[in-house]
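User: Please predict the structure of the protein below. I'd like the answer in C-alpha cell form so I can feed it into my own downstream comparison script.

Assistant: Understood. Taking the following sequence of 266 residues as input:
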Amino acid sequence: MAVRSALMNVMFKAAEKAARGLVRDFGEIENLQVSRKGQADFVSNADYNSQKIIHKELSLARPGFGFLMEEDDGSEDTSSKPERWIVDPLDGTINFLHGLPHWNISIAAERNGEVIAGLVYAPISNEAFWAEKGCGAYSNNNRLRVSSRKDFSECLISCGIPYKGMLQRKPNFSKQLDAVMPLVSGIRRFGAAALDLAYLAAGRYDGFWEERLDPWDIAAGILIVREAGGLVSSIEPDKNPIYSGGMVASNYEIHNQLLNLIREAV
C-alpha cells in the first residue's frame, strides 16, 4: 500500500474539499453563471469557488508557501516564494461547462524551482493520480507505470488542439498532426492536459504533445509521468517543459521518435 506524506495528505484534503462543490455545480450545469474570459476560454463560478477553497486549505496547512494559480482572484501575488503551490482548480473547464465529465483538479508543490509532489484528481470517476519525487507514482494505491509499447504503429497518442484565436499563434499544429497521425494507431483529444498526462502515466496513452500550455496545466502531471517511468521534453530544446509553453511526453521506447516528429513539423 502506498504511504502518502503529510504534504500529500494536505493536497488530497484540499482537492477533495473543492471537489464537493464542483460535483454539486456539475450536476446543476445549466444554472451556472458563466463569464467570458477570452476567445473560447471561459471561467465559471465553480472555477473561482474551487480555487478559493483550495487556496484557503493549503494556506492554513502551509502558511509559508506561495501560490501560482490559473485564476486571478485579486489575492496577493506570492508566486515568487521559493516554496509554492501550482494550482489549476478546474482543468477541463470547457468540458465541465458542456456537461462532459472529463475534468479534474491539479495541484503541484514546488520547492526552489523543482516540483516535489503532484496530484491530479478526477472527481467524477473518483480517480486520484499522484506522485512524490523519488517515491513513484500511484493511482489511488496502485503503482503506475507507463506503457512499454515500442512499435509506433500500435501506439495511442493524445494531444491538445489550438482553439479559436490560437491557431494563428500556433500554426504548426496541423503539420504536427499530419506528421504523427499516419504512423500511429490513433490520436485522441479530450481537452484536459492534466488528465492526459495522468492517463499516460497509467499506460492508457503512449504519448502526448501540446504546443500551448501553462504551468498549472502540467506541473503535477509531468512529475506523475516521470515517476511512472516516462519521459517529458520541451518542444523547444533545452528548456523546462513546465514553463516553455509546449511539451512532448511519452514512454521511454517511443520518446525520441515522437519528439523528433513534433520538432521537425515546422
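That's the full C-alpha cell string. The chain has a mean pLDDT of 92.
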